Fold each of these.
Amino acid sequence: MADQVRRLSLYVSLSFIVIAGALGYWQVVRAQEILARPTNPRIIEEERRILRGRILDRNGEVLASSEKVGELAQRSYTYPPLSHVIGYASSRYGKSGIEESYDSYLRGDRAVDTVTALRNKFVRSEQRGADVVLTIDLQLQKAADQALGNSKGAIVALNPRTGEVLALASHPYFDSNAVDENWGQLSADSSGVLVPRAIQGQYVPGSVFKLVTASAALDLGLADPNAVHHHEADLVVDGFTIKNTNHPQLKDLSFAEEFAWSCNVAFALTGLALGFPSQIDYNILAGPQPFLWPRGGVDASVARFRDYAQRFGIGQAPRFDLPTSAGRISTDDSLTPVQLANTAFGQGDLQVSPLQMALVAATVVNGGEMPAPHLGIEARDASAATPLPVPGAPRRIMKREAAATLNALMVLSVDTAYAQPARIPGVPVGGKTGTAEVGNGTPHSWFVGYAPADRQGVAVAVILENAGSGTTYATPVGQKVLQAALQLGY
Amino acid sequence: MATRLRTSELALLPFPILLLGGAALLLHYARGSEWDSVDLAAALLFTVILLVLHVVLTWRLPRADQALLPIVAALCAFGLIAVSRLEPALTSRQSLWILVGVVALLVTALGLPRADWLGRYRYTWLFGGLGLLVATMVMGVDPNGSGMRLWLGFGGYYFQPSEILKVVMAVFFASYLAEKRSLLAHAPLRLGRLTLPPLPYLAPLGIMWALSMGLLVWQRDLGAALLFYLVFLAMLYAATGPRYVGIGVVLLVLGAIISYGLFDHVQLRTRVWLDPWPYAADDAYQIVQALYAYAAGGVAGAGLGFGYPEYVPAIHTDFVLAALGEELGLIGSLGIVALYLALVHRAFRIALRAPSDFTMLLAAGLGTILGLQAFIILAGNLRVIPITGITLPFLSYGGSSILANFVMVGLLLRISSESPTKGPVHG
């Protein structure tokens, strides 16, 4: 009997091995997967207790901070016009903006120094996140919001050398402090109040896109800025008339002046002739004789045009700390000559975001290299800081000489032509205006530019939705932002 | 006289006391509130009870096993920690139940003339137990809305007869099997060329099976039915060897199949056990929340007072492991499993040194009850088997369970003190 009792003892003991195995299985092996399930109530509960880190601008100004109210942490935002950038951290509606992008730092899951990491691990109620420092300059941001006023639209200001984004204004905006209370109203809103227009707005670029066409022509050596052409007639492409109306007072223009006065005919021709092996003779092309296609016909021109648009990142969402939109360039296999002519001066099947246009301007003043735009500088604990990685990498778009030439053309535009409202006394400013036709509505008013033009200070893109002429509306707004940036020492 | 001192026990007792005291400190820290005088009083009462028990055992049963009391005290400490964490209002009642349990332990351990004396009255125990069962079937109430009428009420106090029944049945079977085991093990019954076991002596097996099914049918008490049956089978095996195990397992499977076919709640529990996630919002809510709790605990645990046990319904009675698993982590939950393992080990060690067949079978039976009861509820809590509503010995909140378990420990202590080995039994 003793043997059976001994064996029974063994069987009963072995059953506890099963229990131990099951504990290890649920507490360790499956733990991560189970915890991540959406019906886990802990996720929501813990979120509400964590003292999230602050979000600071580049000068240490507080943009978001948390404090304990009883057991729970309460988040407050100091400057609501930045709500699109900062975003919100709602236990009910999730997260957006920087709150989402740098959530792991702000929550404290990725602590910067080991002491904080250990404290967060073992003293859960005290979990405290790291501060996140942004490239945003609150002073410049305020200037941008003020300049934009009550208009619908967006402003992007960035450092053309480093890609640090200094201001991102999108109007209308919401208030991150009251997302839970106003959610119904916000989600039903039809004016796009939740859309961060500066990085996700998709707009027809109009004449500011001539920067891309001009970059292609100059980089390929097809355009001589000083060659003078005679302009009198409208251009007719396959029965479609492109009016010669932008500069009625001037009949003989160099390519530089055509750029400064935003000549649609000249840029339609430039686009059509991008496939040419050597310099374009605008006088012959614009004549009454049939258009002489380069070898490969219109497709050769389309291929080169699309190549440069894609180099500038049109049709591809810029890598950034926040979700951006890709913009759009027609991806049809072939554009007709009429489509190519229109797209070359910024109309047609084309959409860009303000961020993309600001990057185009930045590329010009940065010697042909496009900087990697970013918002994060570093995450900071009490005792240590770690740099936040830049999402993208800078890349060369065109030759340095081509960029220098285009820079001069933009300065010419500000000094003598349509971008004159952007002038700042004593400082060389480069700029390009745009008046983008949108069906039957009032055109979008565009300005892209930078100051000072002889070093990499600040580049901006401004769009005012359905405001009208670029020269009249967006350009003075851009000038205010550039001037504010210069006063702040950029 | 030094050999009569229970030095091992005295050396081990500070651990459960420190465990409880330390937990009270941690809970105080986690709550960040005023001292809860109930926690302090409970810890103090617990210390006094253990010391008094130690002194009484040293005086009256110096040769009794010295590890049992510290193991049981550690489990009770975890139970008190769990109650004061999960249902602070019940802490004082749980402490009082432990006090009542310890009194029952002393009455059992010291009151018996001899351990063998119990075996002489086996039919008294059998009919007393069956009477209790019948009374529950007829007059059972459901004071806490569990949906099962498993309690008997006496003027505001409720008592769960199945807890006492398992002790009574263990005594009966130990006595019956000790007497009939050689008959059961060897006497053949020939039917033509087939050799069958002696049918008349198999009656208890049949009765036990019927009793389990009865529990199941009448009271829907799956856990108790499974426990009773398995304990009986284990004791039959201990007494007679593997002869009846085959047919016992066949009957078990048959019972499982029949009850699955007959009862909706068995089907529901099986379905929820096989895949709880689709029913996470309703039928499987409890087990799914428990799985979250284990996962949230991980290896080191959330820390006492820092988990979310409130998400698991009836956690202080049915799912204590989930609460402790979350807050104490794998380290804590494995510690508890180790304590049960140690308890079972001691019980069987006592069985192997028991003075008679009856006491050997009884100690083995009691060890099996404690072990299997812990296994069934832990395995249910961990989705190893479908969930059943029985208590976790010494840990779950509940008076009848604590009382019955202390009586079992009293019996084990008494049996160990009658061990024929000369000199003290060291821990």
Amino acid sequence: MAGWIDRFEAMFGRDVAGLLGFLALVLVAFTVTAPQFPTVANFSSMAFQVSDLGLLTLAMLMPIVSGGFNLAVIATANLSGLTLAWILNRNGGPEAGVVAFTLGAVAAVAVGGASGAVMGATIAFLGAHPILASLAMMIFLRGLGEYLTRGGDISGFPDFLREVGHGALFGVPVPMLILLVAALCWHILLSHTRHGFAVAMIGSNARATEYSGVPVKRTITLVYALSGMMCALAGIVMLTRFNSVRVGHGEALLLVTVLACFLGGVDPFGGFGRVPPVFVALLILQTLSSGLNLLGTSQHLSTAVWGLFLIAVMILRWAGPRFAKLLNRTKE
Amino acid sequence: MRDYLRSHEGEARLFVVLVVLVVFLSVASPSFLTASNLASLMNNNAINVIWAVGLLVVLISGGIDISFAVAASVVQYLTFYALMAVGGGNWLVGLLFAGGIGVAVGFINAALIAGFGVISIVATIATFNALFGLLMFMTAGRSLYDLPDWWTTRVEVVHLGDGATLTLPVAAMATAMAATWFLISRTNIGRQLYAFGDNPEGARRAGVATSLMQFIAYGWVGLMAGVGGIMQVNIVQEVVPNALIGRELEVLAAVVLGGARLGGGRGTVLGCFMGVLLVAITQNGLNMLGVSPYAFKMVIGLTILVAISMSNFEFSALAGRHPGRRRLGRLD
């Protein structure tokens, strides 16, 4: 049994085991209290809902690991969504074809990547603080979107997009599949490539990394460009799910993405952070939200519970080692 | 004077930018440099300055607070119910309630940070979500309109002529600025706050009571959140639960523009004031110049981006005197 646990911990890390325990606890609690909770319909709707937050959290994750921050994730996602919507509308709106969609999606990712690259370059080459640079970028991008749309929303998209946003492949919702693929890519990128190693090293000590011969400035620029591209993917998925784009869509999720990263054990100073625990943290947040919703409370209570849950986890992480030390002392 | 400029380079640059902006707007628009416009500029931005000087103290101590704007909303509701319980009250009672509740909310953050070792940005994002969720859940999103008369009556403090008057929030702003200046520049506690923010471990070894510093800093931002909250009601004459959410990031941008360093140990009240003014005057100027309101946010975001790029750019590097230093900020 112990060997089993050791092997699991070696494979996924100790943090994942703890969070999976939490997830199991929450799942059991809601299964007992809410009869509609353990149903296929509920799990399917949870899988649909977690995708937006999940993609945005991935976009937040990489900058935090590099010792930075990206407060512009929602604004970037919105603007990328607008780009796609604009191209679809220019090509017939509801009659737009797959080619127009592909073109629009590529343009959206390009817009997201470009705005991320500008932000990253400001941080890397001018030494602006990431919080401030991304904050300014957020205000600028949101303003640009407001200016272009006059605050209204854009809708009227082709029917096949409904299949992307609401369809399922082999019983798994398409947005969830997109999230899974994106998370896998991010995991490989962060944990198994030269780039990921450099990102974590920069997050630990940028100067030492620079002296080791890593192109720190270029890597940081790339981090934010990749983050922007992930935002664009989130923007595209949000477009297909809501069948409309509006500036400010999902703005409430901004700080929740940070919350999810911290819950997933990402070091706020950078240097440490992995995709699997963050993914489990996302599942916990979504379970809490859906479960509370089934119990008949509002989304706002979920927000409060998310915050309180993060506080509880932080206190447990603080108390855990102390408690263990106390136990060992009494044994001696 | 030269020493002051050298140690307050950010403030000096910001001052130059402000002067250029004011001169340009005075020439471009005849209605800019009038008593009524300047008075309304002050009246409308007094609240932001009150919050900014509160946040400044936290930034100096090396922390960050995301929750103060939501805390201000919580204060508004709790103060209302407390006032109803004592039969209406007056300004003195209201300020006591608002300040007291604000400090209490600040102490929650301080307890999490100092007591449980939670990183400030994690702790305040958690309390942000917890407070906002609970507030929206408890109030069910309902606004309050039936407020005591003294609270919503416009109090004119200084007459500038031409019917232009400065109102009570401006007086509160001046008091908050003076009190914060006194705290950080003229007291022993202020020196300790700077020292603690610049080098927490060094300060601890030098005998600074680190937990006390956290409680003072977060208590102060809580106090300012409370005072700003009660004054904001005086301006808008209603209490809306989600009216202030999002303001925390605008204020943060303004404070950091004003030369406060994310990571601690640097920042002045004057810089803070100029940071808020830069954003306010930019918006006011765009209005005067007849620019479409939809473009405001975009231009403000761009202004902040340019300003931070300028403030991090080493002009001396152009002259080839010494290579550009990169300041890497850290958050505690």
Amino acid sequence: MPISFLRRPEAIVVVVLAIAMIGIGVVNPAFWSLDNQFGLLRSNVVIGIMALGVLLVMISGGIDVSFPAFAVAAMYLTVKGMIQFDYTGVALPFFAATVIGLLLGGFNAFCIRAFRMIPLIVTLGTASVVRGLLLGLVGTSTINVDKMPPQLIDFGKTDLVNLTLADGSRYGLTAMILIYAALALAIHLALRYTLIGRSLYAFGGAPEAAARVGFDTRKTLFFAYCTAGALAGFAGLLHASMIWLANPRDFVGFELDVIAAVVLGGASIFGGKGSVPGTLLGVFLLVMIKNSLIIMHIDTTWQQVVVGLVIIGATTLTAWRDRKRVA
Amino acid sequence: MNTSLIELRGVGKRFSGIRALDDVSLAVRRGEIHCLAGENGSGKSTIIKIMSGVYQPDEGEILIDGTAVKHLTPVESVRHGIQVIYQDFSLFGNLTVAENLALNSFLRERRRLVSWRAVRALGRRALDRLGVDIDLDAEVGALPTSAKQLVAIARALMSDARLIIMDEPTTALTRNEVERLMTITHAIQRDGIAVLFVSHKMREMLEISETLTVMRNGRVVVEGPIVDFDEASITRHMTGHDVSTAIYSRTHDAGLAPRLEAKGMTVPGAVEGVDLSLRPGDIVGLSGLIGSGRTELALALFGMRPDHGGEIRIDGKPVSLRSVADAIRHRIAYVPEDRLTEGLFLTQSVQRNILASSLDRITRGLVVDRSRAEASTSEMIEAMQIAAPSGTTLVGNLSGGNQQRVVLARWLLTEARILILNGPTVGVDVGSKAEIHRIIRDLAVKRGLAVLMISDDVPELLGNCNEVILMHRGRFVERYAAGAATEDVLTDRLRTLS
């Protein structure tokens, strides 16, 4: 491997991922089966799309813990609306869910900007308000598969390839992975090749200097939080269509998984650093670890321990890397 | 004479009733190197902010190229070619050199997309124009301060600058780096660009500027070609009174027994066996480049390097200095280089800071004797002439000079007999500096303290020490008695070491 590759922050994730995959493969040879790999990729989609949004926020030097609440609100409202109006399309609902998330994200940005508030506090607050309002005003009951709009379920069922196992059961690779890939590419290009994308890095690295140089930092902030909200809203509805139900209490504790994945992918909690390729790898690594714990029949409570340790480990590693660079 | 690039006429500015600027007139001509001098709080920063459009003057007018500008905004100021290089450089440490250099142009052209080929080309052009070689792909955060400054200057030039204002540009630079900055400044000037240095370092002003403006208390006190000034006159204008520059010489008996005697001092990796002797009333200067071992020697004497070797005697008795507690017990005091991070509690009161190292002495049983605490601190505040409204003022709200006095006061309260000072006047303005020097001399003469003064400031060493030692690679390479060396000799010798 060339040295320049090893210097890239993503290199650590690649190495860790490779070691983890080999290790898990040794313990459980079924890990390498196409069936399992397809399943893994499928589990990447929703958490990955949310992670792309959180990546933007973290590069800007902020943090977002409200996106699971926004996702659930966008998902539940849209599904309720579809049932209410007997709507049969798919595109409009996804558009609606995205817009709901975008507006809520805009509210985050507004509070942070207008009241000069710490992003963690603002997003903790909006998350609580949105979840509360959803359950209090819209409903508390899960919409099950029998009530779910069928076209949503069909959309979620779309496969890229379809194969049959020896025992006759069928499995496939979900087409949703294409949506994930397209969004990842779009965010990657935006971060790398647009001035608004670069303004996120500048703002996250030195907010004061960004304003002095002439960036419209208000636009930067709204871009980060609105995109995070929009991606969360979209991912929320996608999640419902893939699991065939809409639960207004869904996504609890999701923020930790997503933040862990983004940090694992090399983003700095202090802002100014992070990339889409790194995030994709971080998401894959986290999903794979959790998935393997399930296969090994390890209790969910212990999975939380693992996610917590991953966050601490990964942030320590990135912080150590950043400090070393300064020294 | 051609018209000025920027001119302030009778400018005044108030902040919540307090006059920051009073009837200030100042003109910077095209292509000249102008120096704006003044102590902290004299109004220099306010002038920078008015020229860059951050503040609007309450009275007076701003003329650019001879035309009055009604309401100068930051954007307009930049469009008129005025660029400010702040002390923190306003660079992005997480981005590469190339991107830092290119972003301004992209923003000015209101681009939406970023071409990385254009980024590199712009970066290359900016560095070439300055004639410096810095890796375009390096992250700015990983560069040394001097390189960051060059990037900031290169970036300013990219914005079609006609006037570059540099705020205290030499504060964090070594001697060699300052000289390089001077060379580059001359190169910039050859391109017809004016430079306004805002500084309180006199030597550099005299070396580089053509015109000097001195401010005091929000007013311009004097202005003219630099040849009309010398260090003493600049200081007089800045402080409003003469600052004594008499050389410190010992009047004591030369046969006095040493207070501190160190033989064969070693610190692994830093000090290679040196002999040092301090008599009561001595002020011994110690200089050398960063990494010469001077700080390690000081730390060893203060018990912070328990791995040191050699024999240390205080008043003739061998002592072991393996911890700070040991050192304090033997009445050794150390004022660190960076008083802000190592020596002071900024969010605590003056009183608490002064008492911090003497608490056990004024404690009865388990409680602090409040009246004794009051009495001894107010005595100190007066003796050290600390300009604080009261003992309860937070140290963070004091000026650099007064903060330094608080640190000194704390150690004097411990009844120290050996005082080690590391860079006692770094970042302190001229007036306070002279005052601190006077206090140190007084301590040596009247209280018989033995002082070891580590400093980079050659005039400070020559003016205040009865002996100056140069250290290099862990050894003492040169010793000068008071009056035996001139500034040039010492500066040249230091240069040959680098």
Amino acid sequence: MDNFDPNKTPKKQVLSAQIDLSKFEKATEDEKRQQDVMSQSTSFFKDGMRKLFKNPLAVASIIVLVAIIITIIVAPMIVPYGYEEILSVNGKRDKGAKNLAPFTYSKAEQKFIDEGGTRFPHIMGTDEQCRDYFIRVIYGARISLVIGFFASIIVLIIGMIIGSISGYAGGKVDLILMRIVDIIYSLPDMLVIILLATVLNQVLVFKSGSALAALGSNMVSMFIVFGLLYWVGMARLIRGQILSIKENEYVLAARSIGAKPGWIIRKHILPNCLSVIIVSTALQIPSAIFTESYLSFIGLGVNAPMPSLGSLANSARQGLQTYPYKLIFPALMICLIVLSLNLLGDGLRDAFDPKLKR
Amino acid sequence: MEKTCVSVQYGQMQRWEFVDNLQKCEEFERFLPALPAKLQTQCLENVARQRKRIDQTEAFRYNKQNICTLRKTWMQVGKENKQKGVKNVGRYIVKRILLAILTVLIICAITFFVMNAIPGGPFNREKALSAATIEALNKRYNLDKPVGEQFILYMKNLLHGDFGVSLKNGRDIKEIIAESFPISAKLGLMAIGVALVCGTVFGSLAALMRNKWPDRVIVFFSTLFTAVPSFVLATLLLLVFCIKLAWFPVWDPNNPNFLLPVLALASYPMAYTTRLAKSSMLDALSQDYVRTAKAKGVAKWKVIFKHALRNSLLPIITYAGPQIAYIITGSMVIETIFTVGGIGSKFVSAISNRDYTMIMATTIFLATLMVAANVICDLLYKVVDPRIKFD
């Protein structure tokens, strides 16, 4: 093939299957259009979202969650009471506003309204320290959601880093990391959390006015505890994923052109185990909220006077017989949040992880 | 035999040498010194590459010949593996127990050192004690020694069953545990029994009546109860059945009624087991052996109980360990709410009273219990399912 020219049609051989172009005619524009791919090309993420929005339970839980989040953000702007503010009328402390039922006013407030003043209704009544209960429940839900969200982010980051190092490096690094994971995994997590929370509450002392002090030592200790203990499950999961993805041809190809391990992990491996990461993070949030409310219930949660749903439910136990609604409201809020997050997690799993069956 | 070619470059000219075996390659090497020195390395590289390829094909051919003989020894290898398997079971059990002991030791260490990190000694009271008294107390409880030595002393005492003395009321912790643990154990065992049995029954029922109303009802309630924290359920049960309806007494230590605490404690594990049992039952029902049994004309109940249910129980056993851990921690709140005088409620009151020795002792005790339960579940699972490989 010394005189081969790719731009010229080679001379037809006798027995060749080469097409005689003169026997064909060009397709018209109309015919060309018929061959167009009608459906739009879709990415993995778009396809997953489409499946998610077809699932009625998931859509309902998204709506509930969005409603809760909007309430949490908007309500403190509308309701004129603070979560630790003791009610007062005309600058005078209102001593009668103790343990009011929902949508009722104390005598002083009633008098104030009769004289022509306007008073924002106590949607969920007031508590035993004359504070508006609705705003406390709202702040409690805020705290619970924030803790759930950030705790799972912390877990995700630590678990992802250690899991991908362990899975990709293999060998001795993997062995050592997995032994550590095994040991932390076999620790009874709830007991260690209680222990650490008890101690950290005493040990952590922050300068007043700093950001950490605003969070309170209990909340910081809760994050520390989550970061220390809960990453192991995520690390194991990601390691397992990486071990299987690592064997794929595109990783081999990337390695053969000299891509660095960090780049391969970021560009090839992590996007491929994204579905597992999304699903387990979504399911981590409700479990973190559960843990937080549990800790608050036994008195190790967020510092007073900051309310949390668990501590509100706990303090409602004292006057349970006469004021059952004080338990019902925070309890309903926890159930609603956890239920919708669970359903959303299930929906995400069905949409993004076709391999995982119910 | 495969022919391979080696290219040699003589100045501007390129020559192809066909080499059909290793020997010719060596011959080629022999006239190599005659070549210009510049080209020698290049040629050698080429030859090395060829030789590697030849080696690989040789190895492949060798393997192919041996596959037949390998097949003959297959049975023998299987027998050997079986013998090895028995050995591996023993090794696995020993390994698992060693890991458990290590875990308990780590828990003891964490508990001890973490508790030691709390600022202020145990004798810092509102009413200040005299320096001499504190010194005497420190000496009495070995608090004047270095931390490491204290830890060893503490561990020695633990091995002798001596958990120390409660800081709050000065009682021997061993006694407190001995009197409160049986109540908790009874409560916990009842709860785990109810959770596993009812969960399996409901889950299997839902799987057998898939997409009919019993399935819908069961799935609805199991989803709902995984979202209700146990303390909320317990408080509601207490409110409705003990206070409003007064069907049950709140808690009478002489005539205890376990129904409500067990219900509250078992709700979450039950809901979880139901979901698990449903999916594993569905999985088992779609297996080939179930279809074969049906095709043979085996009675329907026999297929369900003998083939499907037995196999669907495996994942439930796997999750029994974590559920026991859940029951132990859950019992703390439930016991507090129902004022059951179990070890859980003692733990919670120790936390709120800052009774550090009590917290330490109870943590170590409960943690050991959980680790032991996990080991037993793991071993049970491996015994029940012979398909599991021992590593």
